[in-house]
Amino acid sequence: MGIKTVAVYSTADRDSLHVTFADEAVCIGPPNSRDSYLNIPNIIAAAEITGVDAIHPGYGFLAENAEFARICSDQGIKFIGPSPEAMEAMGDKATAKATMRKAGVPVVPGSEGILKSLDSAKKIAAKIGYPVLLKATAGGGGKGMRMVYKEEEIESQWESAAQEAGAAFGNPDMYMEKFIEEPRHIEIQVIGDQYGNVSHLSERDCSIQRRHQKLVEESPSPVVSKKLRQKMGDAAVKAAKFVNYEGAGTIEFLLDKNGRFYFMEMNTRIQVEHPVTEEIFNYDLIKEQIIAAMGVKVSGKHYMPDNRHAMEVRINAEDPYNNFRPSPGKITNFHKPGGKGVRVDSHAYAGYVIPPNYDSMIGKLIVSAFTREECIAKMRRALDEFIIEGVKTTIPFHKKLMQDPTFVSGNFSTNFLETFDLGKG
Length: 425
What we know:
three-stranded antiparallel β-sheet; Dna Ligase, domain 1; 21 strands; alpha+beta
């Protein structure tokens, strides 16, 4: 687009590729994220020093922080994302569920807002029936989440979840929802403009998860029909329009084994797995975020192509044979796969040192093809060609998964990996 960029970085990320490739780069603090990537005054100072017009928040740290978006606006800097009001309505999970009830979008049965006490939690659990999930309203990544199978467990699980949520997010508030058995995790990509228009780009299936962290994403979902896709897409658009949503976002649903879907949460930002949708539709979501922020109208509805399938796996610096233990360190050899329909998004290279301070993701491997079967075959080959030495990675895990008959069949739920046998390294 010909737009000059300024990268911000902590001292731990000084050798990351985004720092090298940006037109300018500003160090905003030491490795601790509270002193750098979560340090709003330092980020605003970097923006003012370099005279930027807008800030793209990425998909972590302050990406869903309404106060940060508000400060950007106060400083005359365009926040590339939704308004603070939309973020507040959808970013807090309990508030989002209450908002979606008003919008007429189906939600999982549970508490209406934050649980006031342990006694109220017990009453609601008895009403909707066990098993239930206790969830941190400010949570993410599975933190502050506990399954409760019977009333005798609820007190200890409440205390454990609230303590974990308070430590991780500074907010111990909890809400409750009915546990949906054998669900699929389906998300709908939406994009809105400043004029109330919202369109969606169909679904991604994110059901292959470990401890609520997505490991594989694909589109279209093997279990979503054209009729169901239209219903879920319409519900997602209704949800986004209800809060005057601007920019790219994702409405996340749980789909039960009977084909009923329920609103779970909204990610008010671009997501790690957005390339899956880009490859299906030949649509640059980051570019569209910037265009929407400029005040340009979004195009109308988008329909799933009949002859495309895309899949993404996350390559993390983790040892899958040692309970996915993080494996920071120096990459001694790095070779990316290539060819038609193969894409790698990464900040790493041979000689790069993966710091222990942040998320362990090294990169994303995305493949696209005409069918799901061809996509899986292409992914197998690409994983064979992907060479990363010096640190442990999740490549062996993905190789085994791509050969698994249940995964290949497409007939699985979010608890699939609980019984998945990786074997020995």
